[in-house]
Design goal:
The chain is mostly helical and about 190 residues long. It has five helices and no strands. Helix 3 packs antiparallel against helix 4. The longest helix has about 35 residues. The N and C termini lie far apart (about 45 Å).
């Protein structure tokens, strides 16, 4: 398909989707770099080999997977022009995003309760990586929540319907990406020592 073909609106839509994918690819590269550094650093003599991730991280993983399902439900409802179910799905996704962040910070508290801080005399290189990776991911979830708020606002202004879903689809793509990214990061941090 020739990217120069189509109406101006179609060209703009393709450009917006392409910009989102460039951003996603750059995020993948960033997190690949951090997880690679984690693997390289794991050969250090002060590396914690027997550390278990906090249970709050397991709960947050389940929550973020459910949030993707509620966003899929909202999109499916929008395709059928079911505004009420779309609203429920969007609001549920937003609330689950907040709950995810809550459990992430609960996980940090569990790590601190074990005596490991991000920096300082009670820090450890293993924990510093876990803090860094999780905090940077949380920042991207916050960006996802802001996108979701824009989508919810536009939904209430009746901007979206079954034939006009671009902003909705862009937000959904980003949300699913950060969800999949966390599942990867969680599995990585859980299994790679």
């Amino acid at each position: 398909m020739d990217l120069t073909q189509g109406t101006q609106e179609e060209k703009n839509n393709r450009a917006k989707k392409m910009m989102l994918w460039f951003g996603i690819i750059s995020l993948i590269m960033s997190f690949a770099g951090w997880t690679s550094a984690f693997v390289v650093s794991s050969s250090r003599p002060d590396w914690l080999k027997d550390f278990q991730l906090p249970n709050a991280f397991i709960i947050s993983t389940v929550v973020i997977i459910i949030s993707s399902l509620t966003f899929i439900m909202a999109k499916s409802a929008l395709k059928k022009d079911n505004r009420q179910l779309t609203t429920i799905g969007l609001l549920a996704t937003f609330v689950l995003g907040i709950i995810f962040i809550y459990y992430q910070f609960s996980g940090f508290q569990q790590i601190i309760d074990l005596g490991y801080n991000f920096t300082g005399p009670t820090s450890n290189v293993t924990m510093s990586y876990i803090y860094l990776i999780a905090i940077v991911h949380i920042l991207h979830v916050v960006v996802g929540l802001i996108c979701l708020l824009v989508v919810i606002y536009n939904h209430f202004k009746q901007k979206y319907n079954s034939t006009n879903m671009l902003g909705f689809e862009l937000a959904a793509t980003f949300w699913h990406f950060i969800d999949i990214l966390w599942v990867y990061l969680f599995l990585f941090l859980y299994f790679v020592r």
